[in-house]
Amino acid sequence: xxKREVTILAEQVEREFLPxxxxxxxxxxxxxxxxxxxxNQCSLTVALCFPDIYEVAMSYTGLAxxxxxxxxxxxxxxxxxxAPWIDAEKVLREKKIPLFSLESRAALKSFDIVGFSLTxxxxxxxxxxxxDLAHLNVRSAARDENEPLIIAGGGMANCxxxxxxxxxxxxxxxxxEAVVELIQLVKAHKKAGAxxxxxxxxxxxxxxxxxxxxxxxxxxSRGTGPQRRNAVVExxxxxxxxxxxxxxxxxxxxxxxxxxxxxxxxxxxxxxxASFCRRPVRYRGVEKIVSLARACYHATGFDxxxxxxxxxxxxxxxxELVARLQEYFRDKYVGLxxxxxxxxxxxxxxxxxxxxxxxxxxxxxxxxxSEKLRQIINKPLKDEDLFxxxxxxxxxxxxxxxxxxxxGLPDETEEDIKQIVELSFQLAKxxxxxxxxxxxxxxxxxxxxxxxxxxxxxxGQKPIVYFEQAKKLILDEKRKLHAKFLQFKFHDxxxxxxxxxxxxxxxxxxxxxxxxxxxxxxxDLWDECFDYELWQRAFEKFGIDIETAAQRRFGPDEILPWExxxxxxxxxxxxxxxxxxxxxxxxxxxxxxxx
Length: 595
Known about the structure:
By secondary structure, the chain is an alpha/beta fold. It has helices spanning 10-17, 54-57, 61-72, 86-95, 124-133, 175-191, 196-206, 273-277, 286-300, 318-329, 350-353, 371-376, 383-396, 414-429, 432-435, 464-480, 493-503, 508-518, 532-541, 546-550, 570-582, and strands at residues 44-50, 76-82, 113-117, 149-153, 169-171, 210-211, 257-260, 262-263, 282-283, 304-308, 335-337, 362-367, 400-407, 440-447, 486-490. The strands form four sheets. A six-stranded mixed sheet has the order 2-1-3-4-5-6, covered by helices on one side. The protein has a four-stranded parallel sheet with strand order 12-13-14-15, with helices on one face. Helix 10 links the parallel strand 10 (304-308) and strand 11.
């Protein structure tokens, strides 16, 4: 790797960029607890990129952890780079200003490594856009020794073939320890004068969590190259965690002290990629969590402590933890923020929570309205426990409820979909037992997206007409019940179809993603930017129908585009799928089902 000249754009940014964007606070840096080193004095520099705007990026704990870890290493500097919003992109392109970091306002091209956090398939066009705004070639094969190593990690690394042509190396699994090993390897080889190609080959040979797409064939029938494995942090108790998180200048999506209390999930919901890929389950002790929360609070002044994990309700000492945090933070007017509680487990906890948790609303991920479907998806929640838990919440002071349901599950019937409305209706009326009032309930409906590394990854997504008719059915049922106190919010159907088409795709999706980006695709997670017709054209350009790709079913013996990329053994997942199908009477839809 060549030694890179650092280009600082501070004057140009101040004069030609910041006065012309609507929210300059997104791009100025300099926040409390920011870490800034002299890039010219560091032996290795890393740009940590998040392919969404500042407010979203600053709420992502994974980025904060890696930022803190890398900046603790002597001779290494890590700086942040986020996706500029539409107005800012226009200014950058018109003024020919390359994309820059927040800390030093250094051109992205100046860094030795550019690393992306991939948290959703619908952020991929932003990755290409950021590379292009940095005046870098978007294709790995077109980049030379004068351009940085481009790496990526995060949840989507486990199904990364659709981005394989753009990224030099993917870090699979958990990054806290793996990223340090990778940085040390790059530092040593850079000092020895190794080329990027030599560094990538050595990394892939040494680390089984390092996936270098150039060393693998693109064919679905490849079976070539060694199996990659996820990096796992064995000692989660002492895993790195930032003690001085950055305090954002503009309001972030989540402004709170965030402490991860456990890693992994003991549940195995058969649609959930994270629960199958992030294993085994590990816990932090109560003392460690309280210590982290105290340190972060005193370094930031945030008035809320968020307890993070895939399934906080399954933390074994949750009652003790809540009591300890309440004891310390009560007189500081700091509240706790918890994800949805398991109502079958935490009835006794609700009285304790009433004085320590902000009761803006209780969230419950029910997922399916019938117990039959819950068994199929492996979420065995009983109706009697659900009703008992919600009534206990009303008695403890909660007045609002938020429910999550999913439509498009195996063996789902018209009655199952109607039951979503009926169940929500009954839960709202349940509050009358407490104070004579009807609760207001917000219900979010998502559409099943079969995900890689899950038992449902072999299944096809339901057709678009199925989801459209299901949405109509739900709203018609609400009108029949005159349930104005039920507010339904539906995920964008077209966006879910695109997600399914890309999520389980192979390297053929690289051309599609690049074509969509060139045609203007940006911020596909944002309603004001998402353009489904644009994506349809991009798929059609390469002879692929987007809905056919989304609905594709895979055979049990078929080589999957993601099976070499970490995750559980295929046999284990197929065993889960078999158990799910045992509860399915017939794969045929019932008569008159949305026809």
